[in-house]
Write a structure and sequence with these properties.
The protein is α/β, with parallel strands linked by helices. The protein has 7 helices and 10 strands. It folds into 2 domains: 196 residues, P-loop containing nucleotide triphosphate hydrolases (Rossmann fold, 3-Layer(aba) Sandwich); 70 residues. The structure holds adenosine-5'-triphosphate. Pfam families: ABC_tran.
């Protein structure tokens, strides 16, 4: 087997150009010259300054956005339309408020034609795995922010996707709940390793969770400017690992690359607002 055939997701020489939101005559190249490969079972985080193009890349990998040029491959095959091998988790979870937690988790299975009884049984199993046994009848408004995230996680994982695409899934949570969720995701990931593309602002989170961290430049024409293998032992506790000397060393190395881009990103945001 060639090295390429071990890739779950490949973004090859991607470029994304948009019509400017402010002036339809202007074009804005958000992403250019970007190649990103995620191997089967690998956990890769992408960090970069605000507004640089992280979500754009994730949407390209999901098949929700066609790149202006470049190719996306899923398990070696060119992607056409939506990436059916991928599950997504976004910053704001999209639970249906009129459905109970159980009904939210089972909806994807029902779309696939799984019987209601079977879908409900699988939903209960996944609710238990994310620590929500007994909460299946609750509606989203009856759950805390952390619990809603768990439901969203169960909703994604019940479909057993081979690739997980996560766009700042825990950024809205308080620090303690966030660390609990991060550890839970790592446990679930360790039990059945899927390819993960994890987008985050938070360098600590990226290092604590990942096998590899990719740093993006500030826009326009965002592209990878650094790639770091995270050689910290697993299993990891995301809070404890932060005190490890190797963590601190990696953090310093990556921040040296990221810092200037973050400053450029802020400067551009100020210009946009001005
Ligand atoms: N549909 C679109 N039309 C026009 N411009 C867009 C569109 N989508 C994204 N952009 C622009 O492309 C750039 C990258 O956006 P994107 O949301 O991918 O960044 P991000 O790194 O995920 O941001 P954040 O860190 O703030 O979540 C931004 O300047 C954004 O305004």
């Amino acid at each position: 087997m060639s090295a390429e055939s071990h890739c779950a997701l490949e973004l090859l020489d991607i470029r994304c150009t948009f019509r400017s939101k402010d002036d339809a005559g202007q074009r804005y190249t958000a992403v250019a010259d970007t190649t990103l490969r995620i191997r089967e079972g690998e956990f890769v985080s992408v960090v970069g300054p605000t507004g640089c193009g992280k979500s754009t890349l994730l949407n390209v990998g999901a098949g929700l956005l066609a790149p202006s040029s470049g190719t996306v491959k899923v398990f070696g095959e060119p992607l056409v339309g939506i990436n059916a091998r991928a599950g997504y988790m976004f910053q704001t979870e999209a639970l249906m408020p009129w459905r109970s937690a159980r009904d939210n988790v089972m909806v994807g299975l029902q779309y696939r034609g799984v019987s209601d009884a079977e879908a409900a049984a699988q939903a209960e199993q996944w609710l238990a795995r994310v620590g929500l046994s007994g909460f299946g009848d609750r509606y989203p408004h009856q759950l805390s922010g952390g619990m809603r995230k768990r439901v969203a996680l169960a909703q994604t994982l019940v479909l057993e996707p081979d690739i997980l695409l996560m766009d700042e899934p825990f950024s809205a949570l308080d620090v303690q709940t966030r660390q609990l969720m991060e550890n839970e995701v790592l446990d679930l990931w360790a039990s059945k390793k899927r390819a993960v593309l994890f987008i985050t602002h938070d360098l600590d989170e990226a290092i604590a969770m990942s096998d590899r961290v990719v740093v993006l430049s500030a826009g326009p024409a965002t592209h990878p400017i650094g790639e770091f293998t995270i050689d910290l032992a697993r299993p990891r506790d995301v809070a404890e690992v932060r005190t490890h000397p190797r963590f601190v060393e990696l953090h310093t190395q990556i921040w040296n690359v990221l810092r200037d881009e973050v400053l450029k990103g802020y400067a551009q945001q100020r210009l946009k607002v001005a």
